[in-house]
C-alpha cells in the first residue's frame, strides 16, 4: 500500500539505504532490504536547510515504500528532467499515431459492425428462421448489454492486472468465435448464449481503448483521438449496409443470407484478434515500434496530464475515492441517459421499413446513418480540440438536433416519409457521448480510480442500452410515440448532466487556483542499491499514481493547461521558421564581420605602405 506523507509535513533529506531501513523499522514497518524504495523529501526548504535539519536534534519521519506503488513509467525516465525537444515530441506522436490509431479505428469499426449484425440480420431473415417473437428479439438486444454489465468490472480489473494488448486480443478471439456460432443457431436459446458471449467480450474494448488513449496522448490530443476511433461506428454502419446488401444476393441451398453475414463478420474479427496479439502495444514503456529513447519521449510527452501511464497495483483507497467523487455519478447518469436512445441501433432498419421502403432500400438507406455519424463526430471533436474549455458546450450543442428530431418524428404527418426519414437520420447523434468519454479520461487520475470510474460509466452505459429495447413494443407501432418521447426526455437529462458537470469542474478549478502551491510530492526519489552503491532517481509528481484529488496541480478543465501541453505541428513549424531566420541572421552577421575584417586589413596595408 502506498503511504503518502501529510500535506505540509517536513521529512528528512537523503539517507543511506541502511538508514532508510532503520527508519522504516522505527515506524513499525518491516520492509525487505533488496527491494527498491522511495524516499519522500520535502521540497519547501532548500538543500542547505535539509542538511542542517538532518544534523540537528529535531526528529523527522522518513517514509519508505516499494516501487510497485508508483507509475510504471517512473523508472523508464530514470530521473531525466531535461527539456523536451518539440520536433522530437511531434515525431514520436506521429509514430504512435501511425502504429496504434489504424488498429484502434479498425477494431472499433469491427466491434460496431459485429454489434449491429442483429439489426442487419433482422431484415435478412433471422427472425423467421429462428422463430423469434418481437419480445425475444428485443431480449437478444438487451442480454448483450446485461452480459456487458455483469462482466464490466471484472474486465476493468483484468485490464489493470494484465497487459492491455494481450487481454484485448483474447477477448477479440472469443468474440469472433461466438459471432461465427450465430450461423449455427436454430432457436432463441442458441442466439441468447452467443449474445451473452459477445457482451462479455465487448466490455473490454471501450475500457481498454480509453486506458490506451490516456497512456499515449496528452489531454488536448485525447479529444481528437477518441473521436477518431469512435467515428468508426459510422464507417461500420456504411460498410455493414453494403455487406448486408451483398449477402442479400447470396443464394445457397441450406445457408441463408443472415448466416453468411455472421460468418463473414466473424472471420474479419478473427483476423483482427491475431493482428492485435502481435502488433498492439501494451503501454508506451514497452511499445515494440519505439526505441528506448522514443519510449522515454512518449512518457515525458504525457507528463502534462498529471495522470501517469499505468500502475498494476489495485489500490482500495482510490476505488473509495472514485465512489465518493460527484464527477463519477454525473458521468454515470449521463452515460445511462445517452444510451437509452442507442436502442435505435437494432431498430433503425425496422423503423425505416415501416416508412414504406423495401428491405433492400432500408439496407442501403442505413448507410446514410453512417455518413451522419462520421460527419457529426468529426466536426464536434474538431471544434472541441480547437476551442479551449468547450467540450461541455459543444456536447450540448450537438444534443439539440436529437431533441428536434424527436419532435419531428412525433408530429410530422405519417404521409411525409421523406421528412420522417431525415428526422430519423438526425435522431441518433452520439457526438455528446464521444466528447464525454474523452473528458472522462482527462479529468480522472490515479490508475485504480480511472479504472473504477471507467467501469462505473460503462456499467451505466449498459443499463441504458439494456432498458432501451423494451420501449419498442408492438402496441406502439407504427408511430412509436412512447419510445420517441422517452428518448427526448433522456436527451434533456443529458444536457442537464453536462451543464452541472461543467459548473462543478469550473468551481473546483477556482478553489485550486486560490490554494497555496502544494509541494508535498515535489521531491520524491526511488532509492536502489546497485553493486553496493546507493542510487537515487527523482520521480516526477505526474508518475506517483496520485489521483486528481491528491494532485492539486492538475487542472480539471484540461484546456486550462493548454500552454503546458506537448507542441502542435503549427508550433513546431513556427519554431523551425524562427530557427531558420536565426541561422540566416547568423550567416548575415558572419558575412558582415568578414567584410569589416577585409576593410580593416586593407586600411592597415595602406597605412604601412604610406609609412614606407
Automatic annotation (TrEMBL):
Residue stretches spanning the membrane: 167-185, 192-216, 228-248, 260-280, 362-385, 392-412, 418-440, 452-472, 484-505
UniProt cross-references to PANTHER family, sorted A to Z: HIGH AFFINITY CYSTEINE TRANSPORTER (PTHR43791:SF63), PERMEASE-RELATED (PTHR43791)
Coiled-coil zones: none
Main subcellular location: membrane
Compartments it resides in: Membrane
Pfam families according to UniProt: MFS_1 (PF07690)
InterPro entries: MFS (IPR011701), MFS_trans_sf (IPR036259)
Compositional bias per record (Polar residues), positions renumbered to this chain: 1-10
Name the UniProt record assigns to this protein: Major facilitator superfamily protein
Organism: Lyophyllum shimeji
Gene Ontology cellular-component terms listed: membrane
GO MF: transmembrane transporter activity
Top-level taxonomy: Eukaryota, Fungi, Dikarya, Basidiomycota, Agaricomycotina
Family, per entry: Belongs to the major facilitator superfamily. Allantoate permease family.
Membrane topology summary: Multi-pass membrane protein
Region ranges (Disordered): 1-35
Assigned keywords, A-Z: Membrane, Transmembrane, Transmembrane helix, Transport
Domain of life: Eukaryota
